[in-house]
Amino acid sequence: MLNKVMLIGNLGRDPEVRSTPSGQTVASFSLATNRKWKDRDGNRQEQTEWHNIVCWGRQAEIAGQYLSKGRQIFVEGRLQTRSWDDKQSGEKRYRTEIVCDNFQMLGSRSASDFDSGSAGGGAPFPSEPEQDSGPDDDDIPF
C-alpha cells in the first residue's frame, strides 16, 4: 500500500511551533497549491487548495526558525486524518493533514539571502559553497 503526498506551494501563515506534553516539538502551518487550466470556452481558470502540514522533531524546529508566510516549499509526506469530540457541540470533528517526512525551501527570500535549503529526515541543512555576501551569512546554517 502507498500513502505518499508531494506538494509545491506557498505557506499561508508562519509555522506555529509548540511542544507536546512529552516534550516533542511539533510545527503546523497551511500550504496553498494552485491549479490553472482553460475551460471549454478558452477562459483561464485557477483554483487554490489549502493543505494542513504538520512537522515533528528537528524538522519542526527548522520550520519554525526558517519558514515564514509566503515562502515557497516542496513538502513530501503522508496523509493522516485525526478525529476528536468537539467540547462545545459534542460532535465528532475530523481534520486531514499531511504529516511531513521532509521539506525543501524553494526560490529565494532576496538576492542576498540563501537560495534553497533542505530539511529532509530532520538532518541539518547541507553545506553550500561560501560566498562573500555580507556579515548576516553567519546566522544561516548553510
Structure explained in plain terms:
By secondary structure, the protein is mainly beta. The chain has a single domain, classed as OB fold (Dihydrolipoamide Acetyltransferase, E2P), CATH 2.40.50.140. Helices cover 7% and strands 48% of the residues. The chain has one helix spanning 57-66, and strands spanning 5-11, 16-19, 25-38, 44-56, 72-85, 92-105, 117-118. Strands 1-3-4-6-5 form a five-stranded mixed β-barrel. A hairpin with a 6-residue loop joins strand 5 (72-85) and strand 6.
Please name the defining characteristics of this protein.
single chain; 142 residues; OB fold (Dihydrolipoamide Acetyltransferase, E2P); 1 helix; 7% helix; globular; disordered C terminus
The 3D shape can be described as: globular
Q: Return the domain count.
A: 1
Strand order of the largest sheet: 1-3-4-6-5
What does the radius of gyration come to?
18 Å
User: Which CATH C-level class is it?
Assistant: Mainly Beta
The helix tally amounts to 1
- The CATH homologous superfamily is named Nucleic acid-binding proteins
Please give the alpha-carbon distance between the first and last residues: 36 Å
Fraction of residues in β-strands: over 45%
Number of strands: 7
Give the topology.
Layout: E1 5-11, E2 16-19, E3 25-38, E4 44-56, H1 57-66, E5 72-85, E6 92-105, E7 117-118
Parallel strand pairs: 4-6
Antiparallel strand pairs: 1-3, 1-5, 2-3, 3-4, 5-6, 6-7
What's the short version?
This protein is mainly beta and 142 residues long.
